[in-house]
Amino acid sequence: MKSPRRSPVVPLLLIAFTLVALVLHEVGYLQAAEDVVLRLVTPVQSWFSNRARGVGDVVQTLRDLRTLRDENARLRQENDALIIENVQLKEAEAENERLRRLLDFTRTNPSYDYRGGEVGARVIGHDPSAYLDFVIIDLGERQGASLDMPVVTERGLVGRITEVHDTSSEVLLITDVNSAVTALIQTSRAMGVVRGLAGGGLLLDQVPQDVEVHEGEIVITSGLGDSFPRGLVIGQISNVYQRDYEMFQQARVRPTVDFRNLEQVLVITNFVPIADLQNLPEETEITGP
């Protein structure tokens, strides 16, 4: 069976039409028709062009937002890293300054033996109760700590060790109500006993009535007994309580040690106690600020 033959008429007509249209366009006869078509097509073309441009702007905006989000996340990470680094540097600087002061204390008081030495013993815990006032330091029996050893900072007396463990010790602060330190007023040389008060204060008690006690005077350890060496700063008198009908007068003492921000301490492991008052020199050197 023979396949039908395709007629060449249609292609020829299309070619002829195209040629005629080109000739008419060249001579200008189609200008009016082209203007009409352009007027009809242009609004549609503009509408599609604007919509395509709007879609492109939205896509670009989304890309820009994603880029900005990634950049902000990177900058936040860098900022967090810089903050952490700055905090660490400030902490290291503050710790170095505290250790330098402790080292200066040991150099100006070479007659004592210390544990903690240049590094000092770090406070690792505080008393959670309201009845005892003590701290825990990371210096124990392994490092040579033992009961009743005095604990100090460069600012003065902190307390004494009351319990020793393998690698840590409990230090009873002088602000505890169970603490009592024989003390000496620097200027008048009057004796007394510094006791801790509930709430963290200090009271100088058993001061003779015939002694003039003034605000601002420095109170130091007397060295009597076997508990503390002489000349350690305890605090400064802030108020004086004197009643003629009482046997002794009292004074409120502001401690020189900042117990709320206690971080490094020194433990004095060996010192020579003063047996009685006659052995005290006329002038006692102040070992503190």
Structural class, please? alpha+beta
Tally of helical segments: 2
Broad CATH class of the largest domain: Mainly Beta
Number of strand segments: 13
Q: How does this model look, in words?
A:
With 289 residues, this protein is of the alpha+beta class. Helices cover 34% and strands 27% of the residues. The protein is built from 2 helices and 13 strands, in the order H-H-E-E-E-E-E-E-E-E-E-E-E-E-E. The strands form 2 sheets. Strands 2-3-6-5-4-13 form a 6-stranded antiparallel barrel. Strands 7-8-9-12-11-10 form a 6-stranded antiparallel barrel. The longest helix is centred in the N-terminal third of the chain and has 78 residues.
Describe how the helices and strands are arranged.
Elements: H1 9-27, H2 31-108, E1 113-115, E2 121-126, E3 134-137, E4 150-153, E5 156-164, E6 169-173, E7 180-185, E8 191-196, E9 202-208, E10 218-221, E11 233-241, E12 248-255, E13 264-270
Antiparallel strand pairs: 1-13, 2-3, 2-13, 3-6, 4-5, 4-13, 5-6, 7-8, 7-10, 8-9, 9-12, 10-11, 11-12
